[in-house]
Amino acid sequence: MNIASMGTYVVLAVCGLLLAAAGVTAEHSLQGLEFTPRFTRLLRQDLNSVPSYLLPTGAPSLCATECCQSDSYASPYGLFSISNTQHAYGGRTYTTFNFVLHSNHTCSSLLDKASCCTASADTVWVDVDPTLKVNYVLYNGTRLASAAQSQYGLKLGSLNLTVAQLKGGIPVAITVEGAADTLCPPSGLVPLPGLCELIIQGGSAANPSACCPNTVAVSQSVSVPETPIFECLASSSNNRFKLVFDGVTPISSQFTSTSMAQAAFLRYNFRLVGTSTCTEGIFKCCNAQLAYVNLKVTDLPISGVQLGGISFNYSTSSWNEPNSASYRSLIVDEVNLMAEDLGSTGLTLTVMVRVPAGASAASLDLCDASSDPQQGGCSYYLHSEDGVCCPSGIALPSAGVPPPPSATCAPTQNVPVTDTSMSLQYYERTTSAATTTFAFLLANHNPVLGCSKSYCVDVCSWTLYLDPNIASKVAVGHENPQNNDRQTIEAGSATSPASLTFNYGPVGESTATFYVTLPAGGKSLSDLCARNALPGQGARPCAAIVRSTSVYIMVFFDESDVIIVPGAMPPPPPLEQMCTAPRAMSDSCLVAQSARYNTMSSSAVFDFPVAPVAAGATCQPPAAPNDLATVHLLLSPATVDQLTTRKQVRPSTGLLLDRNYGARWQVATTSAASLSFQVQGPLGIAEICKQGVTPDQPVSTCVVEVSGDLGCFRGYVTATADGRLIWVEVSISKKGVGASVIVPAVVVPLVVVLLATLVVMAWYRRRKGQQYFFMNSGSDDLDRPLATQSMNSLRDDMVTPTASTTDVQIRVPGASQGGAMPIGRR
After folding, report:
1. Are 246 and 345 in contact (CB under 8 A)?
2. C-alpha closest to that of 534 among 544, 525, 524, 526
3. Distance in angstroms (rounded) separating the CA atoms of residues 410 and 503
4. Distance CA 724, CA 435 (A)
5. Highest mean pLDDT out of 79-88, 190-199, 512-521
6. Most exposed: 368, 681, 683, 759, by fewest CB within 10 Å?
7. What is the CB-side half-sphere exposure of residue 361 using CA atoms within 13 A?
8. What DSSP character marks residue 800?
9. What is 254-317 written as a DSSP string?
10. What backbone phi and psi angles, to 5 degrees, belong to 443?
11. Distance (Å, rounded) from C-alpha 337 to C-alpha 134?
12. What is the bridge-based pairing of β-strands 673-680 and 649-650?
């Protein structure tokens, strides 16, 4: 046959397929014909490789022994395209495309030359985009082991279905790695995006390869039983592999170890190690073979990769995951390792990076921490060949994460945030002229019926790393006052940053809000948090760790992550625990009087007294004489946080502090009492008390309520500056509460201390003056009183003679009684 004739038949073949009206005569004499599909997009690319089974009936001479019937109108089989969904497992996004394989197409007996209307459907070929990697195929709810992807598409083999079996339809789910909008490239049959071309191979017992209808999947809304979606097994407890990071070695241009300042290359040292235990999960991964290693990396130039000291091929590619920034992926393929190959110490994996010209080696980092704001360190994914085993995590140096405080849960396994039921968010920042409060929302999504994450756990503690310069100044607030004091503040050391650890967290399906306050206005996260507290923190100002008993996550955030943006309307003040119908404070027999305060440069002292009214006054008692009344002072949340954190408040017992409602304490209705405290910062009455609680509250006043069984009274207390107020911290002996406990002291006017000192000094000088005067006097009058020194004088030349009934009289003999003549009189 000449070349021109061949070209003519090729053109006829393509035209026949586009019209979809050609039939091919089947040859029944051959058994078990080797079937190699060629989809129409491939025909358009290479017209010289037209397979004979796709040639139209008009060329019987070319179809003597190897033809099958490809007319879709002469076949009952088809594929409905239902939907596609995206989901993330093991740190990677997957897309699942859902189809229904059926036998409900009308089959034309006039076009059926090979009895394909009643033939079986043994193998289905789907023209999957060759740039996609198929990870998993679910067939009728179970994994299809006979599925295989090749250059010819995706083969679903060994189905062996009849027309009757497919009448009700069988669901097929195809999962590919990555975020994909379509599974297949545009077909040559119907060049529309999103439609998949397929070939259904089958036949009869006489000729198993008689039929190969070529058609496209049709979008259809079909009700099918819900099938499980693909989920690779990412938990390290169900796998035998993990990756650890051993550090970075600076390498000179002569490929020897050197200092960071002289480094031309950086060698990143990892180790593939086996886990100590492995529990079989849904998929059998404990004996799976490791196929390839995937690391999230930055755009630094990689010059080589070695595994176990042997150079390995590697590739890099860009990924763009949904709801995430793009990142670069380093893939070390064809690893093909079993856990037994790693030995007791693991297998070294080194990545050599060239230091760019003019760059500082100390500031470089191969591992991508900015691509995922919820993760840090070296994120890795270890995949089996079939994709169902994907242990993942963050490779960290052994000393990379500071240990938690003692008596706190201390898990050692770090996992990505997306794999756990725990999450931490920077919720809100509120600032005034004197304080800045940061709110953090910690959530746990672990319902009783279980969750969809790899690690369904409960929070046991979490830590925020603080700037060491402000660690001693922070005040801590809890959403529930029952959790007051359940925090640990550590000042930090040369090897560990300062930290604030909350020793509890939400469990089950719940949330909890935590508050951290600085005693200054206009502060930001950069003022609150420690830089470089955790590996992978990068340029983000804040780092935190959230722990369960088994795993922990690292969270990094900055001002852009805040949920409640500044300027939003604040919620109304809580009124649930206030009196519903209060009477005026002036009607009460126990009244809150004007407060006193002393505002200094770095702190402030306040005293809020309550006292019974004068005897005989007309008033209403809040409680019976033998009962106690409750005093409610509506302090601001930031003030309550300071009092619960530092305990500089009196009384220290019987006092309830709630950041939502202020302070409550009980007093007797017949005796005076007061609430005294010290706070950090030069605060005034407007900062320490809630403002705008009620419409009639005057500016710069505090709302106070006195209540009991007989009534409730509300008043608005002003404050008077009193420079005599100071706060004295007294250490009580061990006979009391223990010498190491600092107890709030009584507010003592400074002038009283000074006067007492002056009295002692004056008395001493007076005694000395009396002795001097009478020992040198010439008077014979024994009834003459001694000269005394004024209590307010400290100088001898200011002594004046006075008489007092309490003076000590010292008599000495005069000259007439034989005494010596005074000097100057002799």
Report:
1. no
2. 544
3. 11
4. 25
5. 512-521
6. 759
7. 20
8. B
9. TSSB--GGG-SEEEEEEEEEE-S-----SS--TTPPEEEEEEEE-SPPEEEEEETTEE--EEEE
10. -120, 150
11. 21
12. antiparallel
Most confident of 210-224, 358-372, 409-423, 621-635: 621-635
| pLDDT at 21 (0 to 100) | 34
The three-class DSSP label of residue 737 is: coil
Q: Compute the average pLDDT of residues 517-537.
A: 86
> Hey, what are 456's tokens?
């369904």
pTM score of the predicted model: 0.51
pLDDT at 41: 57
pLDDT surpasses 70 at 190: no
- Residue 275, phi then psi, degrees to nearest 5: -75, 155
Q: Characterise 817 by phi-psi region: left (phi > 0), alpha (psi -120 to 50), beta (else).
A: alpha
User: Residue 390 and residue 93: Cα distance in Å, rounded?
Assistant: 12
SS (H, E, C) 613-673: CCCCCCCECCCCCCCEEEEEECECHHHHHHHHHHCCEECCCCEEEECCCEEEEEEECCCCE
Separation between Cα atoms, residue 636 and residue 647, nearest integer Å: 16
Structure-token pair, residue 560: 């852009």
Cα separation of 285 and 233, whole Å? 8
Instruction: Flag the least confident range among 481-490, 620-629, 752-761.
Output: 752-761
pLDDT given at position 826: 36
Query: CA-to-CA distance for 66 and 60, rounded, in angstroms?
Result: 11
Spatial CA neighbour of 10 closest among 32, 34, 40:
40
pLDDT tens, residue by residue, 466-498:
988 889 999 999 999 999 999 999 987 766 789
Beta-ladder partners of 620: 588
Give the three-class secondary structure for 509. strand
Question: Which residues are within 8 A (CB) of 250 and not within 5 positions of it... i.e. 6 or more apart?
Answer: 257, 258, 259, 260, 262, 263, 265, 266, 267, 361
* Cβ neighbours of residue 355 closer than 8 Å, sequence gap 6 or more: 263, 264, 265, 266, 361, 364
E strand or H helix at 9: helix 3-19
Q: What are residue 82's phi and psi, to 5 degrees?
A: -100, -60
CA 461 to chain centre: 12
Rounded (to 5) percent helix, strand, coil in the chain:
15, 35, 50
Summary mean pLDDT of the chain: 76
The total number of residues written for the chain in this structure: 826
Lowest mean pLDDT: which of 237-246, 259-268, 373-382, 751-760?
A: 751-760
- pLDDT band at 757; cut points 50, 70, 90: low
What amino acid is encoded at 689 in this protein?
Answer: C
- Residue range 276-282: mean pLDDT, rounded: 73
